[in-house]
Amino acid sequence: MAAGVPPDALGRRVACGTDYGTVRYVGSVSPTTGIWLGVEWDDPQRGKHDGSYEGTQYFKCRHPKGGSFIRPNKANFGVDFLTAVKDRYGLNDKQDVQYGTGNTVVFGTKTVEFVGMDSVAEQQRQVQLNKLVDISVRECAVSHAGQEEEISRTCANMRHINLSKNLISSWETVIAIASQVQNLETLNVSENKMRFPSTSTFISSAFSNLKILALNQTEITWTEVLLCAQGWPVLEELYLSSNNITVLERPDTVLKTLKLLDLSDNQLLDGNQLHLIAQLPRLEQLILRNTGISSIHFPDAGFGCKTKMFPSLKRLAINDNKISQWSSINELDKLPSLRALQCNNNPFMDTEKNPETLIQLIIAKISQLEVLNNCEILPAERRGAELDYRKIFGKDWLEAGGHWNPEKNKPSEEFLAAHPRYTALCLKYGAPEEGELKGQQPLTLKNQLLTLTIKCPEKPEQKPVEKKLPESMTIQKVKGLLYRLLKIPGSELKLSYESSKLEGKEVELDNDLKPLQFYSIESGDCVLVRW
């Protein structure tokens, strides 16, 4: 092999300035002389061709212009882990003090001799390295572990390591580093395009204490995840975003301790892929942002029943997807432990123009939800959402066979499929009365707008706010707006208003289901907020 080219150069990761790539060819390129490296670049715009030159194909690229040839002296093949740590934390020889010849040290223009200075400085560096618990060598060109057992001798107390965006070419290198860190708990090796085992191999004990692992942008497949997971016996958090994972498999004997799984930015084949990971017993948080899913369905449970899938799932993120039907939101009520949901940027949210109504619909459809899109759902807000839902769809319920008399109450299967919680809401609050359903107006900004001043008399530091509200807006919806507007704690709100025409007279807004117009509120009046 030519000078400057490692014997294992083929397949190695290299850097050239700020560009990263993988060596796909080492050798001559006719008619030139000398050794060339054929590199497939991570950023195809850095390349020039597909690995061919003058009609000869030297290597292949995924992108037609993703490759180019560079001389070996232009390629950085990286450094060992400890060298990167010492450079990063200023603990290399050249970064302590400026050494002269032999056992001398230079202070300004004076040269002073110290007997045994080298060994003393080395001992001090060892002490400092042994104190490091949380180490980050991100973008430090780490490519290999270095001498055997050197890391364990030097950095015995490391627990958290950030190795992201380096020049690691294979999972074996990660094992070689981790096996020397006895109490490793957190490891981030994201943004290293590396090779992973494709068959079941010797299970290393390197990750016996590992709880958090990030493998974002590493090109790992789900099959490879399951093979490697045999060596992660206590893993609790696994981050796998942006890996082109499209299909999943059942993790029959692995990932039993997993509490968080991030699959965001992987275009999954369909929502049914989720069924394959639905039996992870301890999974509490699942992040599926931008995974291309268009529907969610739990076929093992009927209307109003709980699924056996995802038994421990508390937090779910499905934002930035293609979910267009409200039926998928209905399905989420089947999850027995769900408490928090993120669902912004899905087509189903465009079906309701009023954001307040949209939030209320989601709250009413998922009975145990406590946090929606990072906002706490307060008890009064849930009550109002459920009461409004019961009223909004009351006419549909009657037309579908619903009845105030329980013996005659037989809503159709179609209605129950669209509104699986409606029966439970009627049991909770009673069936909607006929008077509630007459002359119902949808909340739109076409209704008469009232210009009102919002004041908090018991909080003088809270400045008055002027808002324009539709006169058909219910008191409950006003409260929901104020929770978010004023960021008030989750206790019960009490509203009243002062008329601009009757100074000193305060009228309590005591019925959550009544609209503002019921209380004869007019533009210019002042709404008083207490809690």
UniProtKB/TrEMBL annotation:
Question: In this record, what's one Pfam family?
Answer: CAP_GLY
Domain CAP-Gly: from-to ranges? 27-71
Q: Which InterPro entries match?
A: CAP-Gly_dom_sf (IPR036859), CAP-Gly_domain (IPR000938), LRR_dom_sf (IPR032675), Ubiquitin-like_dom (IPR000626), Ubiquitin-like_domsf (IPR029071), Ubl_TBCE (IPR044079)
Give me any GO biological process, just one: cytoskeleton organization
Q: Which residues form a coiled coil?
A: none
The UniProt keyword set, sorted, is: Acetylation, Chaperone, Cytoplasm, Cytoskeleton, Leucine-rich repeat, Phosphoprotein, Repeat
| Domain of life from the UniProt record | Eukaryota
Q: Where is it located?
A: Cytoplasm, Cytoskeleton
Predominantly, its location class is cytoplasm
Q: Which CDD domains match?
A: Ubl_TBCE (cd17044)
Check the record and name the PROSITE patterns matching this protein: CAP_GLY_1 (PS00845), CAP_GLY_2 (PS50245), UBIQUITIN_2 (PS50053)
**Any one Gene Ontology cellular component term annotated for this protein:** cytoskeleton
Every Ubiquitin-like domain range: 450-529
Q: How does it assemble?
A: Supercomplex made of cofactors A to E. Cofactors A and D function by capturing and stabilizing tubulin in a quasi-native conformation. Cofactor E binds to the cofactor D-tubulin complex; interaction with cofactor C then causes the release of tubulin polypeptides that are committed to the native state. Cofactors B and E can form a heterodimer which binds to alpha-tubulin and enhances their ability to dissociate tubulin heterodimers. Interacts with TBCD.
Q: Which family does it belong to?
A: Belongs to the TBCE family.
Q: What does this protein do?
A: Tubulin-folding protein; involved in the second step of the tubulin folding pathway and in the regulation of tubulin heterodimer dissociation. Required for correct organization of microtubule cytoskeleton and mitotic splindle, and maintenance of the neuronal microtubule network.
Q: What PANTHER family does this protein's entry cite?
A: CILIA- AND FLAGELLA-ASSOCIATED PROTEIN 410-RELATED (PTHR18849:SF0), LEUCINE RICH REPEAT PROTEIN (PTHR18849)
Protein's name according to its UniProt entry: Tubulin-specific chaperone E
What organism is this sequence from?
Falcunculus frontatus (Eastern shriketit)
Lineage, uppermost ranks: Eukaryota, Metazoa, Chordata, Craniata, Vertebrata
Q: Which gene encodes it?
A: Tbce
